[in-house]
Amino acid sequence: MATALVTGGTSGIGAEFARQLAASGYDLVLVARNPDRLASAAERLHADAGINVETISADLSDRADVARVAARIEDAEHPIDLLVNNAGEGFRTALASADVTAHEHAFDVMCRAVLVLGGAAARAMSGRRGTIINISSLQTYLATGAYAANKAWVTAYSQSLAVELRGTEIGVTVVLPGWVRTEWHERAGVRRSSLPGFLWTQPEAVVRIALRDARRGKVVCIPTVRYRVLGWFARHLPNAAVRRISAGISSGRDEASPSDSAGGAESSAMKADTA
Ligand SMILES: NC(=O)c1ccc[n+]([C@@H]2O[C@H](COP(=O)([O-])OP(=O)(O)OC[C@H]3O[C@@H](n4cnc5c(N)ncnc54)[C@H](OP(=O)(O)O)[C@@H]3O)[C@@H](O)[C@H]2O)c1
């Protein structure tokens, strides 16, 4: 039986990957920080799909924890066939902020961990079939702050890894979702009601399309037609227009964010990030 390792597999998009992979017969290794949520997710998935679920409580901003997850991926006795680098979180720190702690934390979780775990998977899957799915964001094509910059890194990294692994049986797919209904916005302090309703997608559709595209060997996956169209415009509009749109999105979020009133002068100077 094949085994998939999903980071951030207890909530939102990651939990939906776990659910759909379990339904198609994969055994699972779930990685997240909260051990209680990991245990209840594992229990539910085992009860619903009858598959084996292993859990690793790890904070992917911690280098020792990332190394522990990488070692699990490279455990040749219990091979991982599919890696989903999904864990991530929004943050609202200005690029010019003197304190770069939040930037370093975000980079460690959304870029460094993706690099280390992706490399571990590529080595472990060498000489056999394997799949690496990285969750980026449509913000890859925007200029909406540090989160967008991190996700642009994930997209470029994934395409480069696909090039590096050309001629092997390891597929790499990077997924660029638009807005998805998960806990992400609440955790990032972004009010969902500030976003137009028609733009929302559900994790079920995002994951179904991502898995389909990965099976087809597609390297860049933008789930749902409406976001493919928006992605096309973001890639083909003049850069100045993209920056103007990005400024509009960022300032709209600043006005809408509840943390503006709670966060004082510093946060009101920050640009809010969307997913
Ligand atoms: N929702 C959107 O609109 C949207 C759009 C585009 C892209 N994305 C991306 O999709 C991915 C999943 O987001 P989501 O919307 O599903 O968010 P979510 O519902 O908040 O879930 C995040 C998951 O990641 C885990 N996680 C967060 N920080 C972690 C850390 N430091 N170490 C280990 N695990 C960590 C969380 O569990 P613990 O808290 O227990 O660690 C949770 O399982 C992220 O990369 C996000 O940037 C989201």
Descriptive report:
- It contains 10 helices and 7 strands.
- Strands 3-2-1-4-5-6-7 form a 7-stranded parallel β-sheet, with helices on both faces.
- Helix 3 (63-73) runs parallel beside helix 4 (101-124).
- With 275 residues, the protein is an alpha/beta fold.
- It is globular and about 50 Å long.
- The model is unreliable at 256-275 (pLDDT under 50).
- The structure holds NADP nicotinamide-adenine-dinucleotide phosphate (NAP).
- Residues 7-8, 10-14, 32-34, 37, 58-61, 86-89, 109, 135, 137, 177, 179-180, 182-184, 187, 275 line the site of NADP nicotinamide-adenine-dinucleotide phosphate.
- NADP nicotinamide-adenine-dinucleotide phosphate binds next to helix 1 and helix 6.
Number of domains: 1
**Strand content range:** 5-15%
> What is the β-strand count?
7
Q: What is the rounded Rg?
A: 18 Å
Query: Under the CATH scheme, which class?
Result: Alpha Beta
Walk across the major sheet and give the strand order.
3-2-1-4-5-6-7
Major β-sheet, in short?
7 strands, parallel
Uncertain segments of ≥5 residues (pLDDT<50)?
256-275
Mean pLDDT: 91
The secondary structure category is alpha/beta
